[in-house]
DNA sequence: TCCTCAAGTCATCGATCGGTGACTTACCTG
DNA sequence: CAGGTAAGTCACCGATCGATGACTTGAGGA
């Protein structure tokens, strides 16, 4: 990712590399902890180029997070397998691109600005909660129970990666699956085989 | 909280006011988003005084968070009431001193530095998880189930205050208690009246 | 080959940050 | 009332930040 004197001049490729490095930096160090010079230095390019391409630092941030949203692939398949799949994706998948943390958890680090909060909420609601809502039945408080289950998955991810609580950090996916099933049954009122 | 020309020169009182305003700033804007000049301006004092009292910005941060830890009162009483009390304290109590958010959730905003992560982990483990562990029985994975329940409470707090998910934001304490009971029963294997 | 236009660079600005040391002011004591 | 001491202030430093505009360089077409 360092400057290579003989590389070609390719606007789109350079732009993509800037976005990639920006995603990693913003996720690992947060918005304030990342400077435009850092990102440009990772790509091996002059910092002024970042402003030519993205207008401002917040523009770079928005574009980087917008492209990251496409990278999150929501699982499909039988609804009974959704909790296990979401747990795997939120907690156990190796998000090397985001310094080992899930993008959502990493984004919370930069949630000081209001637009970041809106983006996280939209991604959570339209993405994960929308998938999870297929699990809930009934009309009374379907959405609430869905969000409660999503809160659990998010809390597990945060305690594991951001806080580093001992038992959850050591736990394997197999250690969590039985509890995943029992909590899913308690919230959704039906058996969820995992 | 502005400068009052006729106020007395009281080192301890000024120091306490600095810590109070620092806690609010750090919680609301994060470590990087808070400047020493901001905190000093809130108290109505010269920024240089902050360095005279706390040595550095990180010293101010450490002292502010150390004093905040004492402010967290862990509930006691019958173990059966612990989940409801913790839920109230983590989610529904009005933490006006910390811009409406629970200190733990606010601290995650400043978790870019490593010592912040250690402090949050220590506070979670020695505090909340220690209290919750009285709920778990058996020896197989007592600690894991305790952390799983703590993860849920933390996730609820984050979805409510930091993400702003719709149903959880609107939910009252009474809306959550039945689900709190069922999940506690699922994880701890015994009835928890709430 | 040479010209053109876009990709990329360079120099620099103004603001703000954490931090330092000399200075001034107010309170307490004798 | 006088003077010492601690609380609080002032001026300033070096570094870094986001951002701007003029400049240079390289690749492709006529």
Automatic annotation (TrEMBL), chains A, B:
Highest rank taxon of the organism: Bacteria
Coiled coil: none
Organism: Kribbella albertanoniae
UniProt KW keywords: DNA-binding, Transcription, Transcription regulation
UniProt-listed Gene3D superfamilies: Tetracycline Repressor, domain 2
Name of the protein in question: TetR/AcrR family transcriptional regulator
Signal peptide: none
GO terms, molecular function: DNA-binding transcription factor activity; transcription cis-regulatory region binding
InterPro entries: Homeodomain-like_sf, HTH-type_TetR-like_transc_reg, HTH_TetR, Tet_transcr_reg_TetR-rel_C_sf, TetR_C_16
Segments of the chain annotated as binding DNA: 35-54
Pfam families per the UniProt record, alphabetical: TetR_C_16, TetR_N
Domain HTH tetR-type: 12-72
């Amino acid at each position: 990712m360092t400057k290579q004197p003989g590389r070609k001049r390719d606007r789109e490729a350079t732009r993509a590399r800037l976005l990639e490095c920006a995603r990693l930096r913003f996720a690992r160090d947060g918005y304030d902890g990342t400077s435009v010079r850092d990102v440009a230095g990772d790509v091996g390019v002059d910092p002024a180029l970042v402003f030519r391409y993205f207008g401002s630092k917040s523009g770079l941030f928005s574009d980087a997070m917008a492209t990251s949203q496409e990278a999150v692939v929501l699982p499909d398949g039988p609804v009974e397998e959704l909790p296990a799949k979401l747990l795997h994706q939120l907690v156990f998948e190796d998000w090397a691109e985001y310094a080992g943390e899930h993008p959502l958890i990493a984004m919370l680090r930069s949630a000081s600005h209001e637009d970041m909060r809106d983006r996280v909420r939209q991604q959570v609601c339209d993405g994960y909660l929308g998938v999870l809502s297929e699990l809930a039945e009934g009309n009374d408080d379907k959405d609430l129970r869905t969000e409660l289950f999503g809160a659990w998955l998010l809390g597990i991810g945060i305690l594991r990666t951001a806080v580093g609580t001992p038992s959850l950090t050591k736990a394997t996916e197999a250690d969590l699956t039985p509890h995943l099933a029992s909590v899913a049954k308690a919230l959704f009122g039906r058996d969820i085989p995992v």
